[in-house]
Design a protein that fits this description.
Thrombin, subunit H; 5-stranded antiparallel beta sheet; 31% strand; alpha+beta; 6-stranded antiparallel beta sheet; 487 residues
Length: 487
């Protein structure tokens, strides 16, 4: 601020623009511009504005103009001045304020906005840098965790391998006292519904899926009979046809017997030819009225399994009874009748429900039966036709009506000397028993699968045979595999 009192501001109260001279009419009166001034007390802000205006030294006196431009009244020519217009004053004021009056704001709106945008960009760059560092740290942390987990897994696997393969005394199964079994897969794509083995160790397989009979020599599979077509044709083995073969047996002379279910026949393969041994059965002493109302005649009359003893007698297992075929071709009913049920007893007094597999011992004294729907293993004394049920403490006669065994779905049976092997389909296991009913061993972990190894698994096994060295061949029909159990 300047020292001393400030002059009051000049206020322009009335301004008339000069009218240009009309060159065509001289009668137009001359008009003068009258301007009056007055002084008023100014506020502090007005004083400041005046000071700023004074500093600009605005010259209020207009530049000389041509006398022809404006006309004045002769009476007032000596007392009035020609003053600048408001446009001149306004222009000077704007120029003075623009360059001389200090602004109350440090920066313009545009500059402030640019500053804000610059700061925002800087903050965003900092955030992106921090995010990148955070992500890099997180990746490093996860990588370290994965490496530690992998290291722990390797250590654990090493311990397991050392325990399994490095131990000199492998663990013994709880139920068993023998060696631990090892399961391997021999063949795939084979539905082995039934198997038999001859004295030379050749395995015969009835394949219901292809309607053919195979034989396995070591690990080579060959077709014994059947074209693969579904039909009933006898003759040379290369032209023969079967209809769902599901039971098979072989005698000491190499003659193969086949239970051909859908043709209701028992077929015989010998010397390169296929013939019919027995057609639809006729059960003596059982009238057609003896059928239960709920019995499926096809299941009763269809041959499901077959066995042959040392004397050449062929036994055929149907749904509810066992029929014998002597060497002279005559037939007889060993046990059971055409009534479904569960009862021990002699001959026709016994009842079965779904005979799936049969096996005869080496001396032709006993016939063992997988009674599928009764969940039991039955034993028939051939000389007396007496039927008993396998219990945990051995074979004892029962009054029937109750299931006293722990089998789920016994489907395959095989006898070697005094050891009985049983396939339990739905339990996915193969078990061995002595003739007193004590369990000796169990193969398979009980889970449905196809894993090989020490803790291998089966997928609904249904048939088996055992060779002279104790290796067990298993027809794993759920997986269409032929498996081998070594122990």
């Amino acid at each position: 601020m300047a020292d001393g009192p400030a002059d009051p501001p000049i206020t322009i109260t009335k301004v008339h623009r000069l009218t240009p001279l009309d060159t065509q009419s001289s009668s137009v009166k001359r008009r003068s511009v009258i301007t009056s001034f007055r002084r008023e007390s100014a506020s502090p802000s007005e004083n400041s504005a005046k000071k700023d205006l004074a500093s600009t030294r605005i010259d209020l006196v207009p530049k000389p103009t041509c006398s022809s431009t404006f006309h004045m009244n002769s009476s007032s020519s000596t007392s009035s001045k020609i003053l600048p217009t408001l446009d001149h004053i306004d222009r000077h004021l704007r120029t003075s304020i623009k360059y001389k009056v200090p602004s109350a704001r440090p920066t313009s709106v545009k500059g402030k906005r640019a500053s804000i945008l610059h700061r925002a960009q800087s903050m965003r760059m900092l955030q992106e840098k921090a995010s990148f560092v955070s992500r890099r740290r997180q990746i490093f942390k996860r990588t370290r965790q994965c490496l530690l987990l992998l290291l722990a897994t390797c250590i654990f696997a090493g311990i397991v391998l050392i325990f399994v393969f490095g131990s000199t005394t492998p663990p013994t199964p709880v139920c068993c006292g023998g060696n631990q079994p090892f399961i391997v897969t021999l063949l795939s794509g084979l539905k082995a519904m039934a198997m038999a083995i001859d004295p030379d160790g050749i395995v015969y397989i009835a394949s219901a899926a292809t309607n053919q009979i195979y034989y396995l020599n070591d690990t080579s599979l060959h077709v014994l009979a059947g074209t693969g077509d579904y039909g009933v044709v006898n003759g040379p083995v290369a032209n023969a046809q079967f209809r769902y073969p599901c039971g098979i047996a072989v005698d000491s002379f190499g003659t193969v017997y086949v239970a051909d279910r859908d043709s209701l026949e028992v077929r015989k393969i010998t010397n390169g030819y296929v013939t019919t041994l027995l057609g639809e059965p006729s059960v003596g002493g059982i009238a057609p009225g003896g059928f239960d109302d709920n019995v499926d005649a096809v299941l009763i009359n269809a041959p499901i399994s077959v066995a042959v003893d040392v004397h050449g007698v062929v036994y055929v297992g149907y749904g509810t009874f066992i029929q014998g075929i002597k060497t002279d071709g005559s037939t007889f009913v060993l046990a059971g009748n055409m009534l479904r049920g569960y009862a021990d007893g002699n001959g026709a007094g016994a009842r079965f429900n779904g005979i799936r597999s049969i096996a005869v011992d080496a001396l032709a004294e006993y016939l063992y039966v997988c009674d599928y729907y009764n969940h039991a293993i039955r034993r028939i004394e051939i000389a007396t036709t007496h039927v008993a049920t396998l219990l945990a403490t051995g074979f004892y006669p029962t009054s029937g009506g109750g299931n006293v065994t722990s089998f789920t779905a016994p489907s395959g049976i095989f006898l070697v000397n005094s050891t009985l092997y049983v396939v339990d389909t739905f339990s996915n296991t193969v078990s061995s028993y002595d003739l007193n009913g004590t369990q000796l061993n169990q193969f398979g972990n009980g889970l449905y699968g196809n894993a090989d190894g020490l803790n291998g698994s089966f997928g609904n096994p249904i048939s088996l045979v055992v060779n002279a060295s104790g290796a067990v061949y298993v027809g794993d029909v759920g997986n269409l595999l032929l498996r081998l159990v070594i122990y």
